[in-house]
Amino acid sequence: MPSGESVWVTRLLRSRRDWHRYCYLVETASTREINKLLSTIIKKAAYVLISATLYLSKRNFGTVGISSFVENLTGLGRALIILASVLMASSAAASERYQSLESIGQIVRQTVSAMPVVTTLRNPSIEVLRLNDRLRVVECPEPLTAVEPATGLRGGRVSIRVSCKGPRPWSVYVMASLKSEVQVVITNRAMTRGEVLSREDIIEKTVIRAPAIQPLVRQAEEALGNALKRSIGEGVELSAAMLKKPTIIRSGEHTLIMAEAGGLQVRVTGKALQHGVVGEIIRVLNLSSKKTVRGKVEADGTITVSRW
Questions:
Q1: Where do the DSSP E strands lie in the chain?
Q2: Mean pLDDT, the chain cut into blocks of 10 residues (308 residues total)
């Protein structure tokens, strides 16, 4: 029969060999595997400490009852018992089941895809931004719930609140990004401020991008005939904020004033008193009567008035 000392040494050496093996495995293990290894190491450490305490107590005091055993423990023995208890409690905590990051990411994707603004997009792509591997929340016994923010999407990103309503409730906020296929209108050449867009100046193109904060021009027809508010380069995506209606008539230019009365159409020569774009109401001087009237600018530059 091996002596108590030899049994203790054998156990200690075996534990040391296991420790080196665990250190080697940790280098290539995943987070879940590392948690399992740590739990096993903690259990083994607690077992070794308890065994060592019992061995030392038997060697010094012989076989005694539980109460006598506790009373006769040395300071080292009591410290070992306390440490073993802490390790066993840590082992129980380490073995606790946590909510998987995959399940949290899945409900975030489902919530974002169901948002009304997302359902109107073409081939949307939702990406859950990387969750922190250190995130630890207890596994929820009930289905997770997710709530979208009242602000909706902001620059292609949204923060979703994921919650557990179980006995141990918790909530986390998860960020997701969104991209989709978008048809845009881009310039075919560099253009200067005030230039009026023609068919040769722009092309339609499908791109993958996040929803824009400013409304983009989606169809070429929306841009044709409009003037640029500022100079832009080639390949620039046009937005509504970049365009304005072109100036059809300028202050001081002569134009034709047209009015209809009683089924008759009257045309007289006038002089514009201010710049005007299509559809704008401007002041114009009737050169025949020398009266100033207000009229609407038409695409051909004429001014229509309802009365003289």
A1: 122-128, 145-147, 157-164, 170-187, 202-209, 227-228, 243-244, 247-249, 254-261, 264-272, 276-277, 281-286, 292-297, 303-305
A2: 47 52 51 59 62 58 50 55 58 68 93 90 89 83 89 83 92 92 92 90 90 79 90 93 89 90 84 90 92 90 83
